[in-house]
Amino acid sequence: MNAPVSMPHVMPTYGRLPVALSHGEGARVWDTEGRRYLDALSGIAVNTLGHKHPRLVAALQDQVEKMIHCCNYYQVPLQEELASMLVERSGLTNVFFCNSGLEANEAALKIARKYGHDKGIDRAEVVVYEKAFHGRSIATLSATGNPKVHAGFEPLVEGFVRVPLNDIAALEEVARTRPNVTAVFLEVIQGEGGINPARTEYLQAVRALCDKQGWLLMLDEVQCGIGRTGKWFAHQWAGIQPDVMPLAKGLGSGVPIGAVVCGPKAADVLKPGNHGTTFGGNPLAMRAGVETLKTMDAEGLMANAVTVGAHLMAALKRELGDLAGVKDIRGQGLMIGIELDRPCGIILSRALEAGLLLSVTADTVVRLLPPLIFTTAEADECVAILAPIVRAFLAETQA
Questions:
Q1: DSSP designation for 251
Q2: Sheet holding 94-98: strands in order across?
Q3: How far apart are the C-alpha atoms of 219 and 225, rounded to whole Å?
Q4: How wide is the angle at C-alpha 250 spanned by C-alphas 43 and 369, nearest 5°?
Q5: Sign of the CA dihedral running 127, 131, 136, 138
Q6: Residue 272 near residue 243, CB atoms below 8 Å
Q7: In sequence order, which residues have a C-beta less than 8 Å from that of residue 317 and are 6 or more positions away?
Q8: How, if at all, do strands 196-197 and 189-190 pair?
Q9: What angle, rounded to 10 degrees, do the helices at 283-299 and 301-320 form?
Q10: How far apart are alpha carbons 397 and 106 in whole angstroms?
Q11: For 40-55, what is the mean pLDDT?
């Protein structure tokens, strides 16, 4: 490993690994010492097209020469172009653009509260989930189901009712006892919480209950959306539509972007002056989003996510599935988690030493989020590097 890079003027908010990445191409990145790595993390589900994709590079170079930013005092035609593409792919109505998943989730929460106020509910409540992660602002960390994220930032924002995932009886009990609920807010696949999918039948039951109660169904697709599971949005596997859908991460292939896509029940909740952003919807981010979606279509990347994801999942199960200490291997498409029966943070640095980028989340889950351009050969390479690391780790540790 390299010596730690000195960054004394940067606030120490991350436990950084001692590597500085300098450039990338495809699913490969290089550090400043010239060492090459296989990228099975894609910037935490951000680099949809991998690195240095020629179509994206050309589009961004062209846009930088024209205009990077203009404020929302003026019409931005690229906003309408990207919004129309998202509406077409989702079947929803309209879009608000921002800069990140956190901002998209904040906007969704504001919509839920305003929706309640418009119905005469002065203290609106939103149902959220155990093990959820929606961001680190005061409101989104309050919605997040992780005590470690809460610690040191109390008092939390009120108005959240927490339930376990995939337990429809718990949600029905909320419907019976909490008259101020206006929305249900959940990740279709919990990312930071450990790659925990909402079951198809659960999503369908939640949609039906929201319709019955007059609640908004808000599905956080920040990490699992934009083709990662093999459909544009992970909820589409369940054959349902949300009323509010926050997006970010992979939508801009690395350029910061967030979006809230709304259906008819929520499309007109926010009026002029209710919400806004300086940088959101700027021409550079919009061009990145447009080119990302066009390239995904042109190169069949959702089908690739299904094919390569199934290949990667099968290889992981073959190499690790019967190993003592491996509790589960789960996920969908190119969003996969390997849950161990013990904390395994050390695997992050050991994989890095072996030339593989990945993450460990929820203390015990090795998370793989490769770019959607990943090939079966790269999936095999990923498993060939990772499997011996997991075996060695389990052999030398005790649960």
A1: G
A2: 94-98, 258-262, 244-247, 216-220, 181-187, 125-129, 160-163
A3: 10
A4: 50
A5: positive
A6: no
A7: 329
A8: antiparallel
A9: 70
A10: 41
A11: 98
Distances (CA, A) of 18 to 6, 348, 363, 369: 9, 12, 20, 21
How far is the CA of 2 from the CAs of 8, 19, 131, 149, 348, in angstroms?
17, 6, 34, 30, 15
Three-class SS of 28-66: EEEECCCCEEEECCHHHHCCCCCECCHHHHHHHHHHHHH
Nearest to 362 by CA among 154, 246, 190: 190
What is the maximum span of the chain, computed from C-alpha positions, in angstroms? Answer: 61
What's phi and psi for 247, nearest 5 deg? -130, 160
At 94, the amino acid letter reads N
pLDDT of 2 above 90:
no
pLDDT tens digits for range 140-152:
999 999 999 999 9
C-alpha distance from residue 181 to each of 75, 103, 128, 269, 302 (Å): 36, 22, 11, 16, 36
Torsion 48-128-360-342 (CA) sign: negative
Task: Tell me the two tokens of residue 347.
Answer: 């695997």
Secondary structure element (H or E) that encloses residue 356, with its range:
strand 356-357
Q: Binning pLDDT at 50, 70 and 90, where does residue 6 land? A: confident
User: Please, are residues 292 and 362 in contact by the beta-carbon 8 Å criterion?
Assistant: no
- pTM of model > 0.85: yes
Catalytically active residues, by annotation: 133, 220, 249
Placement of tokens 């155990």 in the chain: 130
Instruction: Report residue 128 as tokens.
Output: 């959220």
Backbone angles phi, psi at 142, to 5 degrees: -70, -35
The average pLDDT across 258-283 equals: 97
H/E stretch holding 359 reads: strand 359-361
pLDDT score for 398 = 79
Mean pLDDT of 60-66: 98
Two tokens, residue 364 = 């015990």
The two structure tokens encoding residue 78 = 């690229």
